[in-house]
Write a structure and sequence with these properties.
Elements: E1 3-9, E2 12-17, E3 22-25, H1 40-62, E4 66-78, E5 86-98, H2 102-116, H3 118-123, E6 128-137
Parallel strand pairs: 5-6
Antiparallel strand pairs: 1-2, 2-3, 4-5
Helix pairs in contact: 1-2
C-alpha cells in the first residue's frame, strides 16, 4: 500500500492514495491553516470508523442478516501533551435492517474489534476503546 502527501501552502496538504483517490488536509486557523480540509488526526478517526464499518457490514451480510444501514459515531480524546495521541475512543454503531438479531450484531462488532479491524488494533496501543451499538428496525 502506498500514499503520497504534497504540501499545497500554509498548513494545507493534498493526500493521494495508491488507489488513485485524493483528499485535502488542513490545520486550524490558530495553527496557520485555512480550514479548507479535514485535520490529519480527524482522518485517523475516520479511518478507524471506515475500517470497522467495512468489517461489520461484511460479517452481517455473510451471516445473511438483512442490514440496510450502518452508521458509526466516533468520539476521541487525545493526550494533553505532545505527542497528542488518542487516549480514549468511543464508537457508537447504529444498524438499520429487517429483523437484525442482536446476538449476531454483537458478534460482528466484537469480531471487528478483536480480530479483523487493523485500525482498531493500532488504536488500542494508545487508547482505551469502547463500543456501543443499537438496532433500528427498517
Amino acid at each position: 500500500m502506498k500514499a503520497k502527501v504534497t504540501w499545497i501552502n500554509g498548513r494545507a496538504f493534498l493526500g493521494e492514495s495508491g488507489s488513485g483517490h485524493a483528499v485535502v488536509m488542513d490545520g486550524a486557523p490558530e495553527a496557520g491553516g485555512r480550514n479548507i480540509g479535514v485535520r490529519p488526526m480527524e482522518m485517523l478517526l475516520l479511518g478507524l470508523g471506515g475500517c470497522t464499518a467495512f468489517d461489520v457490514v461484511m460479517i452481517l451480510e455473510k451471516a445473511r442478516e438483512k442490514v440496510t444501514g450502518c452508521e458509526i459515531e466516533l468520539d476521541g480524546e487525545r493526550a494533553a501533551e505532545d505527542p497528542k495521541v488518542f487516549t480514549k475512543v468511543k464508537l457508537i454503531y447504529t444498524f438499520k435492517g429487517h429483523g437484525l438479531k442482536p446476538a449476531v450484531v454483537e458478534r460482528a462488532v466484537k469480531l471487528s474489534a478483536e480480530k479483523y479491524c487493523s485500525a482498531s488494533k493500532m488504536f488500542e496501543k494508545t487508547a482505551e476503546i469502547a463500543h456501543e451499538w443499537k438496532i433500528i428496525e427498517a
